[in-house]
User: Fold this.
Amino acid sequence: MMENFFPAETDFSAELIYLPVFNLALQQNAFPVVSELKLKNHLGRNLAGLDCEFFANPLFILPKTIHVDELANGVELSLHDLGIDLDYSLLASLSEPMKGKIRLEIRYGGEQLFFREYEVTAYAADQWLGLSVMPELLAAFVTPNLEAVSCLQAVVAEELRKATGDSSIQGYQADKTRVYEICSAIYQAIHSWGIHYANPASSFGVPGQRIRFADAIRQFRLGTCLDTALLFASVMEQCGLHPVVLLQTGHAYVGCHLVNHYFPDIPMDDLQTIRKLVDLDEFLVLETTCVTGDQTFSAAEAYARKSYLNIDSDFQCAIDIVRARYSGIRPLPLLRSAGGVELLPEVPPEVEPLAEERRRQLEQEVDLKTLRNVSDAPARVARWTQKLLDLSLRNRLLNVRDTRQVIPIACTDIALLEDKIAADELLSLHPLSNLLNEKDLHDLAMLRGSEIGSEIKQLLDQELAQRRLWTMLAPQEMERRLTGLYRQGRTDQEEGGVNTLFLAIGFLEWKVSPREEKSYLAPILLIPIRLLRKSMVEGIRIARLDEDTVINETLLELLRSQYRLTVPGIAPLPTDDSGVDVHRVMQIFRQTIREMKGWEVREEARIGHFSFGKFIMWNDMTARIDALKQNPLVRHLIGGGGIFDDGIEVFPPEEIAAHLDLKNLFCPMSADSSQLTAVLYSQLGKSFVLHGPPGTGKSQTITNIIAHNLALGRRVLFVSEKKAALDVVHRRLASIGLRPFCLELHSNKAGKTEVAAQFAEALNVPATPLSGQRESVAGNLEKLRSELNEYVQELHRNYPNGFSASDCFSLLFRRKRVPPEGLLRIDCLRHTREEYEEAGRLAADLANAWSETSPEALAAMRWLALAAWSPIFERDLLAAARALCDAARKLEAAFGTLSGVLGLRRSGKLAYLYRAALLAEAFKGCGAIPAPFLAEEFPARAAMLKDFAEDDLRSRELTGTLNHYRLELVTELDFAGISARIEENARAFFPIRFFRNRALLRELAGLKKIGGARLTIAELIRVLPDLEAYAICRRRIDEVAAEVESLLGPLWNHGEPEWRVLRPAMEQAQKLHSLIDSLAEIEPEAKMPLLAALRTLLPEAERHFAARAPQRSRINDLLRAWNEFQEQQQQFSAYAPAAGEELELAPLMEGVKRILDGAGMVRGVLRYRRLKMEAEAKGIGGFAAALEAGTLVPAEVAGIFDYVYGSEMLNQILAQSPLLCNFTGSSREEGIRRFCELDRKYTELSRRIIYARLAARLPRRRSGPCPEGTELGILKRECEKRARLKPVRQLLEQIPTLAPVLKPCFLMSPLSVAQYLPPDTAPFDLIVFDEASQIPVWDSIGVIARGKQLIVVGDPKQMPPTSFFQKEEAEDEERLPEELEDMESILDECIAAGVYSASLNWHYRSRHESLIAFSNHYYYGDRLFTFPAARNSERLGVRFEFVPDGIYDRRGTRTNRREAEALVRYLFDRLRDPKRTPRSLGIVTFSQAQKELIEDMIEEQRAVHPELEHCFSDRNEEPPFVKNLENVQGDERDVILFSICYAADSEGKFSMNFGPLNRQGGERRLNVAITRAREQVVVFSSVHATQIDLARTGAVGAAHLKYFLDYAEKGISVPARSGGGTLKEGLMERIAAFLTEHGFMVERNVGRSGCRIDLAVRNPEKESEFLLGIECDGDSYAAWKTTRDRDHLRESVLRSLGWHICRAWSVDWAFDRQRAEQRLLALLEEIRRAPKTPEPEPVQAQAPEAEPIPQLQSQESPTVSSHRREYRIWVNREPLPQEFFYECAGRTLIRKQMREVVQQEGPICESLLKKRLVRAWGFSRTGETIQNVLNGCLPRELEKTKIGEERVFWPEGQSSAAYRDYRVAVDEASRRTIDEIPPEELANAMTEVLMDFSSCEEDTLYRETVKLFGFSAVTAKARHYLEFGRKALQRSGMVE
Assistant:
């Protein structure tokens, strides 16, 4: 209590803070009765030495004086810890309250400054001071040390023993179950006292309430709720537990911690925390008054839980006794109760025993550390699904409110409720007002449904067993909500195909922050249910949906992302025997959030719709993950990493021309080569990323892709997040006539009426015939394209040397003089590049070498070999020459000496000298040779003499061998006859053989000498060969003996020559004759004298040529001289091979001398000769000849070589190219004109053929009536409705086959795909994403999985998806740019996943190149083809407007008002200027705040200038917009005004923070902003580029902003793409020189990218514009990939930019230069004189919008099929006598007739075929005999199929596989029964029915099929045969 006294301002004041009530407990626990004294001096003087005196009456306190040293004037002093103590003895003696006063007197010296008395009341020791005064003092009344409590503890131990068998009181040493048992035992022990309940005083909780302690309660057996609560607390504390006394309005009860824990606060006023601990079974509450009755411990616990824990408003506080003890609050020091009264002897009361205790099972603590979440979903899928979740408070999954969408359920046990639902039991719902009275309803409402009284709980449990649920809602409200849920559930299922109705069990009550009062409820478990209503009487029932119970993923993501709480052990959900283990899930959540203040888990149940904006997409991804992964690309994206390969190979983009097939290309809009590449890739089935930088015609390309694939019969799904992108493509498709075949399902186009109208439009498409005109035009265009390409190919065909005819022309144009003829002899067309370059270098080197030598030097050095010169080489060469000269002289001397002796003739021929040396050498080893052997004729008879010697020696050998025979008789024998007789005898019979052999031996008996053994047959056989050899030798000897004798003379030796001696002499003589003959070959006259001399010398050779003989020395001298000469000649020949070929010595010496004389010229001669030889080998020897002849100066060789080469090559090319020879520019330009005309016509016809093709696929009966059971009938009836149309999703599910036929192209957003397309929809053939850089991955996966092929169109250099468009709960709060979150796009994901990429590279948007040049360089690597403008204008390009006084309000509005004012002023100045052509305008800002400021200023100006209101009208085609960086992508305008906004603040500080530009990838936002303009960008900036300090920021976006500002302000040019080399600009040089000579200013290579103007002629009258652009047919012309690029599109774009274009053709300028020059001058003059045209209006340089396809007047679609035929039966024209049928001759006729019938009526069943023959022959019935005849005549050679067991015969030349007709009867005779119609024919008829209706049910198909054949109904028999037809249809592959 605070008491004060405030006198006047000039007085002294004091304020005392004290307790007005107190007791012994306050004194015992040292709580001060006076806590503070405040003094304030206003006396105007300082006070020193103040005394403050305290005393009381009675003496409650001990007197106390407090001294204050000084209190200055005007100072306030607070005194604490005053040390005023209560008097123990007085307070201990009180038995009743005592009032009194505390006095305070303050004195200064003797002066009393202050006096005051304060009333107080002192209470007895057993009186509680209540809740108003330190409620924690209640812990002092918990007295565990009283004797009665100790006695009671023994009883507790006994009760424990009885209950558990263990009497130990262990406190918290055991688990919480033991603590629970101890508490139960305490209850039993206290109950044994027999206490009676006493009502507490009405003043419960106020000071003065008396407390009965344990001994008093025991003695009097009486106690209030507070008495018993304190008793329980005392016993619990004595037993080592942690009791808590809980106080609520008018009541007290006890609690106990079941785990070793205590509350951190005292007192603790948070009932929610207690509830959470109770739910976790970590805290126990007891209604202690239950111990005064017969209620059990469990009942006491349950009563406390249900009665007190959920009524927060009644709860006051909880006093944790252990926490109080830690705070120093001790028990009162009492030995006995009140006033020391002695206790009476204890009389045990008679107490009834309690009923058997039924203890509940405590929930075991869940160890969260051991739990893990296991998810089947891959990590990337899990992350994507989390991104789809809505974490705003709008989401009912995070914030369940009591709305019409939710029904609360009165549930006693949510786990039991889940078990019932899991058991598929059907439940009904009823209002509790039908079951409970008003009081029970009120109590139940106060308990919030979590803890319900036992009677009500038992009742509700029984009702649940009877499958009845109850709600607190009033009956009418329940019915209203239930009906609403039922209807909404049906709608969601029909529209979205997804269930959103759940039974939510278990809720988390959570707060955004602990400081907030408001809390929110989020469901934990969601059980999918459905509401069923069979009838209004039966009502709505609740049933389980066949889906799994799921955890609230949105809640988990909220906990994870915003509170960093991960809930473990719930993935998968824990289960029990009945389903999900609900209790365990709740326990896990409780333990997870136990430390979150204000959070708790509530076990409640509600039925409601739980979904969010992207719930359908989320459900699609989570429920269908396995199905999604069936798509290869989705599977790859989920797996991540690697390069995606779909197995489809595509051609490189540069080869597009080779893959164009105009007859099968269906592009309704003109397309450049990069766009056509994308179209053809789509046709191949390739999934790829299509990079589409700004202005490259993405939407036009997408239109072509869609149209082309539709024409090919493929289904296309076009998807974009942005409605604008969808609308653009749809408008383009509509402009080419394809609107009827497109279905828009997004935004306002997804309404049921709108969708029905779109389908009706398709049904009303008239029949459109397919025209063949396009085929003809395509053929002509292809032919003309080939002709135009042929010239380019021929002109630019690169030969192996790398040159083309174009290069040769260019070289020709650079000619300065005509060189000599014949310089080259090269096949240039086969020359390689290396050979060409080598030839050029060689020619230059040759000229250089020629300049360093002379003709005389060449002549002197002609012998030298082509060697590499070096000083060593020259030294060795000269040394070898000198050595050779010395050796030659020695040789001459030696030969002269020997020639006189041998009679040799002198000669200078080297061969003669060599052979003479050989002859002389032969003499050295020569023996004596008879003179006859040296006769001239000896060589001719030497062979005969040699043979004679051999025969003579052999004869002598055989004579010795045959010494027993008479050899003189041998020569007369007939050896052949003898041998023959011996062989003949050997073959004869033995007796005959014997006699014949004896006769033979008798004849030959004289051969043997007399006296020896007789001759035998065996001996004869053995010796006969030797006898024959001897006879032969003797015969040859006798023939030549006379001649040999004459030859040998004395050496004959009477017929016995000494061959041992003669044979070596003969061999030596032969050798010498050979040497002499070789010598004579050179000098014939030398032979005879030489032989004569030798006949004298050689018979005595051993003497004349002995070792020391003079002749021997002369021979050695000659040999040494020759060897030395030969060695020196060889050495010299190594340098001069020609010297080795010299035949005479004198010329050789002369040549060597010349080399020695010209020693200084060796180096130059060798180099030139080597180069000349190489030149001749390379075919450029003519250069050497011209140099040597003087017709070519060395200095001009290098310069003239290229021209000579090019000229020669051009001649060779022209010699084999009639095309180039016959080329004229005029014919070429006429061909181009015709090509452009045909191209435009072809494009127009492509539109028509696409339309006709799609119309031809529509059901033929779409205009007429349709039978039941067909999808067409369903749709037509739906289109005819005016109300109650089917939901879109339901309609699409009912026409799954018809919808893609009528609408083969769907245009949707990712969300609408998930919403309207059922998961089992047949996959699209192609899915195209547009603006894919802004579509998050998680939005795309479900879409991709619905297709076979994917094309992702976007620009990774532009905006990624951001959180900018996600609505916030507080929509009035702007998200700062730095708070925006960039997200992953499907474009970036596909690129990272290695999906193949293609690019669009023609930029059409910008009418001035400067608008795109910056982005092209910094973002696209100068790869874009941009087009230069023909003029410069202030209305074009980039303009910089500096705002000098601009200030960025960084801390306030975050705007730049001055800059905004300048921009708005600029805008309205332009709008008010009547001289300016109106242009569309857009404004782009960096921030949302600047955007809103500019919008406000524009609104103000519009009010001031109402005359300009039309400029802002939304009816304009392109109304002005104001957007920021985040949402401007996809927009474009003629002029873009760009507000930078950021600048220095009012203090001059310039932060380098540019919002989103500073973030990673921020430069992409800048790229988007600066590429929105078609004509001009005006940059408003309050800073210069120089003010942006890159040293202070590393952001790429900030750096690019600096560069862009510099670019805009100073016009600094970004680096241009490098142009071509000078080698190929000969034509350009010639034309430029020509025009310059005529006074024109010419610029070359005008433009910044690959698309440049070769020559641009300035207008002399206006130099800011170009008069004419000249394009040559050089490399840049040939580089265009297609004819359309080269000759049509490019020129069209340039002309749209104001250019006049002229072509310059190389052939014309080379061979008809004068005419070409005259034509060029005439054109320039014509343009100069032409009237000036205004600047062209801004038109995007693309193909014009297509004209709509002319619609024919509506007419009935044809129903008569081209496959319908009349059935004509075969008729016999011949008389057929029946008796002839059975004859053999009749069989031939029958076979012939059968073939005629089959040919006429086939295919025909066998039975019908036989019927025709039987009737033709006049039989009335068919017996066995007739059947046998017919069976034998069946045409076996024809094709046959089956109809059941019967055969079907097919006509010759008709294949069953190719048969497509069906035949109908023309009269009764031609009518067939159903079993007589072949299955193939039935199948064809069914095909016609399907073509009529697209699809239909089986019964309808059968019914319509039989109608075609004239039957009225489908009988059982007909159905049997129709089944055969259906199977045939399936086999054909036409249906599934």
Observations:
- The two ends are 93 Å apart (CA to CA).
- The longest strand covers residues 520-533.
